[in-house]
Design a protein that fits this description.
By secondary structure, this protein is α/β, with parallel strands linked by helices. It is built from 13 helices and eleven strands. Strands 3-2-1-4-5-6-11-9-10 form a nine-stranded mixed β-sheet, with helices on both faces. A two-stranded antiparallel sheet has the order 7-8. The two termini are 16 Å apart.
Length: 319
């Protein structure tokens, strides 16, 4: 497929574990993308681990020029959430505290991630897409401190939520569940162009052990690392029995792939909100597709994805 005529600038907000790492490499290496910076946030792991992993991944693929800004270490509105140590243990088993690539010798940027987002968008002369593939804490803080930011961000793409699928509870996806109040702030902000890529789409773009072998056979740092990262996800999914054996979704990378090939996902206009109080449904994305009165569509929600095209995009880029 032909590349977009213009390069797309983006900032990637991550809580770097395995699938974030694949997203970072795709954003940093694809010729149609210009990764301005990464910002990190508490999520899969405590934020210092996420920052260190992000630096490792960028250095591994020779992109030491891309700065990493560390952000929030706690959720937006509650210090005791997530409360279950089992959740953190589960994320640790999936992602590991330290990704299996060489340690970085450089430091994170001096500026806080929230300050960086505010200052960057205030000064931007080109459009810079914000891709959030982690809990939305940094973005909620930035919007609260500078409400005008919503008009300066031309497009935001979020990996999170689920309509028919949950992965941390039967009702909720991890990124939204980790900080539902922050997610609600973001979805209520009024972004002109907002795309949500939930589990409903990412579960249609799985990668298999056989595909990991193809990535490793590329003989490149990115191909080898992607294979290692995704195989870890597959082993975890096999242990849980949540996916077809020998496969796993690479959630976050699908959002980056969408910037290169928008038709790689299939979207529907819908109204999206987030449950912040329900005992059984906290963190659920409530997606209204039937246009009930008073709930005007405000988001493009991905309900479909082309897994074959997604894999081919990874293979081309990491080659």
């Amino acid at each position: 497929m032909a590349l977009p005529a213009m390069t797309c600038k983006l900032i990637l907000d991550v809580d770097t574990g395995a699938d974030d790492a694949v997203a970072i490499m795709l954003a940093a290496l694809h010729p149609a993308l210009d990764l301005v910076a990464c910002t990190t946030v508490n999520g899969n792991l405590p934020v210092p681990y996420c920052t260190a992993n992000t630096l490792r991944v960028l250095d591994h693929i020779g992109r030491q020029d891309i700065e990493v800004y560390e952000g929030a270490s706690h959720p937006f509105a509650r210090d005791d959430f997530p409360v279950a140590s089992a959740v953190r243990d589960s994320a640790g088993k999936l992602h590991g505290e330290v990704l299996p690539v060489t340690d970085s010798k450089r430091a994170k940027a001096d500026m806080d991630a929230v300050d960086f987002l505010i200052e960057t968008y205030r000064a931007a002369t080109d459009e810079v897409t914000l891709v959030a593939v982690a809990p939305l804490t940094n973005i909620a803080h930035a919007l609260t401190r500078d409400p005008g930011l919503v008009k300066r961000i031309p497009e935001i793409v979020i990996m999170g939520g689920g309509h028919a699928i949950g992965n941390i509870t039967p009702s909720a996806e991890f990124n939204i569940w980790c900080d539902p109040e922050a997610a609600r702030v973001v979805f209520h902000a009024g972004f002109e162009k907002l795309t949500l890529v939930p589990l409903d789409a990412t579960h249609q773009a799985v990668v298999s052990n056989a595909s990991c072998a193809r990535l490793e056979a590329l003989g490149t740092p990115a191909g080898a690392a992607a294979s290692r990262f995704i195989r870890r996800c597959i082993a975890f999914c096999d242990q849980l029995g949540t996916m077809q054996p020998g496969t796993a979704p690479v959630h976050d990378a699908l959002c980056v792939a969408f910037l290169v090939e928008p038709s790689i996902i299939t979207t529907t206009r819908a109204h999206v909100d987030v449950e912040t109080k329900g005992e059984l449904t906290i963190g659920r994305t409530v997606i209204n597709c039937d246009r009930r009165p008073g709930l005007l569509p405000d988001c493009d929600v991905a309900f479909g994805a082309d897994g074959d095209r997604f894999l081919e995009l990874l293979l081309r880029t990491f080659a």
